[in-house]
Write a structure and sequence with these properties.
Number of domains: 1
Strand content: 15-25%
Structural class: alpha/beta
Oligomer: single chain
Shape: globular
CATH architecture: Alpha-Beta Barrel
Length: 313
């Protein structure tokens, strides 16, 4: 893909409405909407990551591409160093060739999967990169690791391109999604986006001989302290509207960031009693496919994006 082809593939950014924010700015000319992102590859890190679900990371890890900024502004985000849209960024602007080269250098180490982390506002760039890597003869498993705040039609446009969808389903409570992430419409938007992912992939997670996902859908949900009713509603929605056989990654890894440590609701981790209550609901709903975490797992998921390897201590 040459520069002219790249520009053509990014035409959607001339009037950007690829995510639910519908900013309608021209990112090709450097204008920035809600996500404060232009048409470049705004990437904080390309690295091997071992901390995803077992069929995603496997034994060798996944090549994760961490995009900067975000179309949600969750006040508790563990990746706040790179996701906070208010932080001025002076990142080196990598071109398509350089990004593809760095990805391929990791694939050449025996990694066979690539994850796009927080890609909702960079979908055109995602498509361009996939095309470029494929043109070089590489065909890894492509993983779309998203906060769930995606347009259903954008997800529909990725059918046949993305192998594994790894969305969050954060909220079933619109007031909570407004208060914590600045998106009152999150429950409805996420339901439609994940519904489209489910239409494409169903509830079956296809694994290779090593137990690594080749195709499918895994829905993540982070349990928040004192917000257990929200978690129960999310699980019930998934079971009733998609299938109880969908693979669920129920996370207990919430850890207060400096921004929320003084808040009465979010200033502590999840208790064993809270987490067990959500796990019991999964059992009641017949949701027997997926993963839970140990309560002390929060100590393993605090990245430092000032480091070359953000998740290595």
């Amino acid at each position: 893909m040459d520069n002219n082809s790249l520009l053509a593939s990014l035409h959607e950014l001339e009037d950007c409405h690829i995510c639910p924010r519908n900013c309608h700015v021209n990112r090709l000319t450097g204008n920035a909407g809600y996500c404060q992102s232009d048409a470049s590859f705004n990437i904080a890190s390309i690295c091997i990551h071992h901390g995803e679900e077992p069929p995603i990371s496997g034994k060798t890890g996944i090549c994760n591409i961490f995009f900067t900024n975000c179309n949600l502004q969750c006040i508790y985000c563990q990746n706040h160093q790179i996701s906070d849209n208010r932080i001025p960024r002076n990142l080196s602007q990598m071109g398509l060739e350089e990004v593809a080269g760095r990805v391929i250098s990791i694939l050449d180490q025996g990694i066979n999967r690539v994850g796009f982390v927080s890609p909702s506002h960079f979908v055109p760039q995602v498509r361009a990169l996939i095309e470029k890597v494929k043109s070089r003869g590489y065909h890894p498993v492509w993983v779309y690791n998203t906060n769930g705040y995606d347009k259903a039609e954008t997800i529909r446009s990725l059918e046949g391109t993305i192998d594994v969808y790894l969305p969050d389903f954060k909220y079933a409570d619109s007031q909570l999604s407004h208060d914590l992430s600045g998106a009152r419409d999150y429950p409805d938007i996420a339901a439609k986006a994940i519904g489209e992912m489910f239409r494409q992939k169903g509830s079956t997670l296809i694994l290779d001989n090593d137990g690594q996902a080749e195709s499918g859908l895994i829905i993540r949900h982070l349990v928040l302290p004192r917000k257990i009713d929200n978690s129960l509603k999310v699980l019930r929605f998934i079971a009733e509207n998609f299938s109880p056989r969908v693979h669920i990654s129920l996370m207990s890894q919430y850890c207060p960031t400096p921004k929320v440590k003084g808040l009465p609701d979010l200033g502590r981790g999840v208790t064993s009693r809270e987490y067990r209550k959500v796990i019991r609901e999964m059992s009641v709903l017949g949701m027997n496919h997926g993963w839970t975490q140990e309560l002390d797992s929060k100590n393993s998921y605090q990245p430092d994006f000032n480091s070359v390897h953000p998740f290595e201590k």
